[in-house]
Amino acid sequence: MGSGYPGAMGHREDLLAGAKRCLEEKGWSRTTARDIVAASGANLASIGYHYGSKDALMREALFAAMGDWADDVQRSLEVDDPAGGDQDTALRERFETRWTRVLELFGKHQAMWQSQLEAILQVRHDPELRAAFGRAQPEGRQGLVGLIHGIDERDVDEETSRVMGSFYMTLVSGMIVQMAIDPELMPGAHDLVEAMRRIVGDVPAGPDALPAPDAPASPAG
């Protein structure tokens, strides 16, 4: 079945790739439709045909670039979990190891994160962009839990996604801001673990390490 548009085959993908390239080279605010056309080899009319508008294309390109970062992190995290020690220690070591790799890839994808920060600052005046970020939140939370805990994100339950995923997303957001100001200000994974230890006395092992509801409470003393 024909596309109904001359040269349409491949234009959608070319436009998306071109928009992602513009996000990396020019950022969210400075990219124009003509920039995307120049980067993609397509034409202005094809933006409207395939995406409806330049803004819609930019939104899709931004979230696609964020997906590329997650894929890059996932590939880099294909290592064995820390072995030995008690559960609390294993979780701390896993967090520190995996978050260190996440931070390493922040630098590689720095331009994308800066574009995301620019976009976030526009959501107050762009309801469609705000809605797009809102729709992406649940999947983003699940994905971060999967990355940090070394599990399939499809196995992350709603409560864990809400609690732990929101926490990790807050860490990521803070890192984006600090990186935009000065990458040297970004704390390392060990510093984050130490901060959590000082706040709560130790890093909790999570719901799966808590006693069952019917288990007797430990005697005080």
TrEMBL record:
Is-annotated flag, keyword Membrane?
no
The GO terms describing molecular function are: DNA-binding transcription factor activity; transcription cis-regulatory region binding
Annotated Pfam families: TetR_C_31 (PF17940), TetR_N (PF00440)
The record's keywords, sorted A to Z, are: DNA-binding
Q: What range(s) does the HTH tetR-type domain occupy?
A: 9-69
InterPro entries named among the record's database cross-references: Homeodomain-like_sf, HTH-type_TetR-like_transc_reg, HTH_TetR, TetR_C_31
Q: Which residues bind DNA?
A: 32-51
Q: State the name under which the record lists this protein.
A: DNA-binding transcriptional regulator, AcrR family
Upper lineage is:
Bacteria, Bacillati, Actinomycetota, Actinomycetes, Kitasatosporales
